[in-house]
Amino acid sequence: MDYKRILTLHYTGGMSGREIAEATGVGKTTVNEFLKRFRECSELSYPLPEEVTNEFIAERLYHKVGKPTDELYRDFDPETVCRALTRKGETLMHLWKKYYAAGEVDGKQPLSYRQYCRRYQRWLGSKNVTFHIPRSPGVSLELDYAGKTLWLSDRHNPKRKTNVTVFVAALAYSDYFYIEGMTCCDIANWLRVNNNAIAYFGGITQTVTPDNCKVAVTENKDWIDPALNREFHAWAEHNGTVIQPAKVRSPRWKPNVEGHVRIIDMHILIDMEDMTFYSLEELNAVLWQKMEQENRENFQGMTYSRKDMFLSEEKDALLPLPETVYEYMDRKQVKVGQDFSFVYDKVHYSMPRKYLRKTLEIRAGADIIYVYNEHGDLIRTHDRSYTPKSWVVIPSDMPKEYGDYGYWNKPYFLAKAESIGPNTKILIQNVIEKFDYPVQSFRSCHGILRFAEKYGNTALEECCREAILYGKCSYTYISSTISMYAEPAATPVDRMKGSLKPLKPCDEDVAVTGIYKDDDEKYSLQSLLSRQKEGEQE
């Protein structure tokens, strides 16, 4: 192996063992074992001196002969270290310096700081003991939901309640926190409250540690390589931060926000449970008022508050926010219809002729809709409309003729309407003329003419006559009134003679065949012979 190259890729390039294995062709297990030995070796550290060769590295890591490590280095009592760390301001670095200052004892050298920390962490793991995690300003933001929930009431129906979940974001260093109520915990609202939180702080930390909710983390089996929600990952990249989810069912990995959840439940939400709210806005107004009060209160036994600590030590350490706020994009597959448009949120958006009947992907923001082809290339944008059944049209998309792009055209719909009746043709003509471009009316025309298949031509013709009379030539009016003009159910037809034949009263001589009652006598041998003679005479 080229040990020096592997170290460069790992420490300078920031590549993992798996990525290095793919780049160098060396087995992943071999790479990880080498990196582990290098980290544990007290004689080597990165960056390497220029005179260090691969042979020297191999000699130190794989062919070292001598006394066992325990005989070379002086040990320490990890339990004493654990007790010492409970003192305020005490750190592992300070304790190691005191240990290292004693120097060599009984021929044993003191451990390096890296080895000292590693041995202490192994002891903690074997005892399942927790220890204080050092926090630095502007490094970590922790996210979670509060334990208690609140409710919104309906003014018109007191029994109807809407559940409100409370989102919590806490800065790990200063304990400064932000809360907001949510009636829906989908990805769009998750990103919205996170945008509100970092706007409240006026910046963002280097890392963000969320709970393992689905809107943040889609899969987190071993914590080493969690699968993040695609939109939340894009949000982090936009804001220049990194998502580091907590371990599943491990609240100790985000102790600050877990502590705030208890504080919020006991000091804020417990008081709001008996309050009645009719809108999310007034509920959040009370939440934010209590949040500000809690942030301004001094820590127990201290002369400063969360806000004091945030303003004096952490605010300036936060990363600046980008100029634009991250916007959630609703992604959806759409198909361009024969009316040269796709439909999103009940609004038609025009597309050029070459995309007719093709499936495209759209990403809809608050103001702009981005349209992508099947290869992920951006085709065009549309200004978003929130008016149902409206059209957003680019004039060049609309065809100038109607005979060369399929059977959906003005002559086709007029001819089909004329075959049903004159009133239907007049109504279809009126529907087409309502729009700036005839192609915009084709879906409505298609829907109107299809009612003839279900209710019959006569019913549709009569319904169209009434619609013209009242000046309501639209698909909506036809669809809501056509059933009133439906023809009554037809009497069963004697298919042999082609004449209507009423059913006999139900008695022993009438048998049930298929879906209606029939007379057994006409299938007798005598009846069949007589019909045969009648046919020969004709």
Notes on the structure:
It is a single chain. By secondary structure, the chain is α+β, with helices and mostly antiparallel strands. It has 6 domains: 3-62; 69-127, no CATH class; 140-317, Ribonuclease H-like superfamily/Ribonuclease H (Nucleotidyltransferase, domain 5); 330-397, no CATH class; 410-485, no CATH class; 496-537, no CATH class. Helices cover 40% and strands 16% of the residues. It is built from 19 helices and 21 strands. It has helices at residues 3-12, 17-24, 28-40, 54-62, 69-72, 78-84, 92-101, 113-127, 187-201, 230-239, 255-272, 280-296, 306-314, 410-420, 422-433, 442-455, 457-470, 475-481, 525-537; strands at residues 73-74, 109-110, 140-145, 150-153, 161-171, 177-182, 207-209, 217-219, 227-228, 242-243, 330-335, 341-344, 347-350, 359-364, 368-372, 378-383, 391-392, 493-494, 499-500, 510-513, 516-519. Strands 3, 4, 5, 6, 7 and 10 form a 6-stranded mixed β-sheet that branches. Strands 11-14-15-16 form a 4-stranded antiparallel β-sheet, with no helix packed on it. A hairpin with a 2-residue loop joins strand 12 (341-344) and strand 13. Helix 2 (17-24) crosses helix 3 and helix 15 packs antiparallel against helix 16 (442-455). The radius of gyration is 38 Å and the shape is elongated. The relative contact order is 0.05.
